Amino acid sequence: MFPRPDKGAPGVYTGADAAAHIKKWFDDRYGDRQKIFMGPGSTVIVLRGDPWEIRLPRIYGRIRCVVERDLSRYANAPNLRTDGQPPITNLLTLINAFPPGLAAQLSDKECYDVLDIFKHVLDCMHAVEYIAGNPYVPEALSDIQASVRHIFTVPPHYGQSKWSSAQAAEKLFKSYLKMKGVSFPFSHDIRGLADLAGTGGMKTLAYGIIDQLQTRAAVRYGDQTVSLPEAVAAHHASLLVGKHVSETLMSGRGDR
Description:
Number of domains: 3
CATH superfamily of the largest domain: Nucleotidyltransferases  domain 2
CATH class of the largest domain: Mainly Alpha
Largest sheet: 2 strands, antiparallel
Helix content: 40-55%
Mean pLDDT: 91
Order of helices and strands: HEEEEHHHHHHH
């Protein structure tokens, strides 16, 4: 976090030299494994029929989000500003391996879609992270990210992605029920769990969310066909469940 020499002076293990020696040890030992993604996760957007992964940044303070078709325009924008203005982030640069040629061709509607999905998913992820200390929530977060990974495996496994989304929603409902002291069955019936959560004080989810998540275990084996749009819809539905659970729990505590 402070200027240090590239190499520590031989035999000197104090001050900046000590920091340089320590950094070299970690570089030699772990190399690129130190480049850990520190954001809350990632999500999927479908553009021109193809899925693209949007990596969500870890934000401290405020940023100004833009969707600029020219990927080079804000490429060197600083992450920190000293003039009191928030740093600028081009959301298209957060899309993994997004080609400049496609970025330049995006319609206004597609640009707005990127902005809307970014805002929606970041809000949901922050809400779920807020209750990450509750039972089953860390495992639900892992399932949410697994639902993204399965879409981008080669070959993609949309059925496994939808199953991971369903598992995330199942764990989130069960977390709510456990926090409320409501007994629940050990089943994969998401609709039943949602209904049970209603008896514990949870308001009904928006229409159609449970339908996008409910699936049979056979989907993992390809016995039930799942399309890319269905897998992506389930992924976003699991995030909405997480936000709903978080906000319901927080409102019950008087934190909001």
